[in-house]
Amino acid sequence: MIRSRKLLCLAALVIITTAAWTEEPDRIDFLVSTVETSGNETGVISQVRVDGPPGTDFTIRFDSGRFEMNARFRTERTGDDALKIRSHLETRRFYGMSERNLALYEEDVQRSAIDLRFGDVLLLYPFGGEDEADNLKVEIVPGLSERSPVLPAGGSRPLEIDVVQSAPGGVVTVWAEKIPHWFEVTASVLSNGVELARGHGRMFIEERGRVVIEPRERPPLQASAPDRLLLDLSVDRLERSRPSEHVAISFDIVEETDGRVGGPAVAANWAGGLSLGSSLIYELPTGLFEPGAKTQIEIGVHLAGSDRGVER
After folding, report:
1. Tens of pLDDT, residues 22-60
2. Residue 176 to residues 75, 81, 288: CA-CA distances in angstroms?
3. Among 10, 199, 218, 288, which residue's CB has the most CB atoms within a 10 Å radius?
C-alpha cells in the first residue's frame, strides 16, 4: 500500500517556490528513511540521502530476518517542481510456524506510479497499514539538490549517496544508478524482403507498451488479412557493456480486424536480446498478409531522443 501526503511546512514551501530551471541541469536529492515499528516502539533504522541528476534511480534492500524487501524506484522529472516515481516492491515477511514446524512467509509484489512535487513526502507501507503493531515504513522526500552539477575541478558530478544514519548490522542497503529510461521501438512485417506493414512506439523501461503495425496498402493485401497487428512489448532489462549496450525484450502479437482483437495470438510470450540500435527477426505464420507467403517481423530498439544524452 502506498500513501502520499504533502508537508505543509515552511521548508517544503521554500523548496517548491524556489524550484526553477537553470541553464545547467539541476540535481535532485532523495532523503530515504526506513522506520520499523515493533509493538509500542517505533524507531528510524536508517536514513540515506541519494543525490544525482534528474532520472536517477535507486534501490533499497532491507533484510532484518522478520522483514525482507527489495524496492526499486525509477524516477523521472516531469516539470519545474514535479516528478514521477515508479516503484517495484518485492516483499517477504515471516508469518509463523506450520504444524510441521516449518517457517511460513507472506510474499507480495507491488508496482505503482505516483506524481510528486518537491517537498512532498511519499510514505510506503510494504507490509500493510500504518496501524499494524509490527510494521515497516519507508519515507521518501524528493527535493532540489544544493550541490552543483559540475565539480570544482570540472566535469560532471557523479551520483552521491550520503549515509545520514547507518543501519545496525547492515540490514538496509541503498544503491543508485543513472540509466536510459525511454526507448523507441520499430516493427516491420516482411515477406521475401518486401515490407508489408510497419509501426513504431515509445516505451518506458520495464513497462509494457503497444506498437500498432499497419499494412502499407489499403485495402488489405488479401480479404482474410487483419487490419493491423498489435505488438505488446516490454524492454525488460538494459545491460551496460562496451562497445555496445544490450536490451532484453518480451512481447506478444495479436491481430485486430474491424476494431476487434480476435483469433489465436500470432506470438505469445516471445522474448529475445539485442544490441541497442540493432534489430531482431522472427518468423511469423505463413500467409499472414499474402496467401502462402512466408512472413517475418523485424523488431528494432533504439534510445529515445530524451535519453540519447544519458551518460553511459
Report:
1. 344 589 999 999 888 776 777 888 999 999 999 999 999
2. 11, 21, 45
3. 288
Task: Record the cell numbers describing residue 167, joined without a space.
Answer: 543501519
Question: In angstroms, rounded to a whole number, what is the distance separating the alpha carbons of residues 278 and 295?
Answer: 20
How is residue 27 written as a grid cell?
Answer: 540535481
DSSP bridge pairs for 248: 237, 273
CA pseudo-torsion sign 175, 180, 182, 186: negative
How much helix, strand and coil, in percent to the nearest 5, is found in the chain? 5, 60, 35
**Least reliable range by pLDDT among 33-42, 78-87, 127-136, 242-251:** 127-136
The b-or-e profile of 207-223 (16+ CB within 10 A means b, else e) is eebebebbbeeeebbee
Specify the amino acid at residue 175: W
Record the cell numbers describing residue 269, joined without a space.
Answer: 510470450
User: For residue 48, what are the CA distances in angstroms to 1, 34, 262, 297?
Assistant: 22, 9, 50, 47
Q: Which residues contact 17 (CB under 8 A, 6 or more apart)?
A: none
- Rounded alpha-carbon distances, angstroms, from residue 171 to 34, 44, 95: 10, 12, 19
Residue environment code for 82-102, b if the CB has 16+ CB neighbours within 10 A, otherwise e? bbebbbebebbbeeeeeeeee
**Domain residue ranges in the chain:** 2-177, 182-307
- pLDDT higher at 247 or 166: 247
How far is 247 from 32, CA to CA, in rounded Å?
29
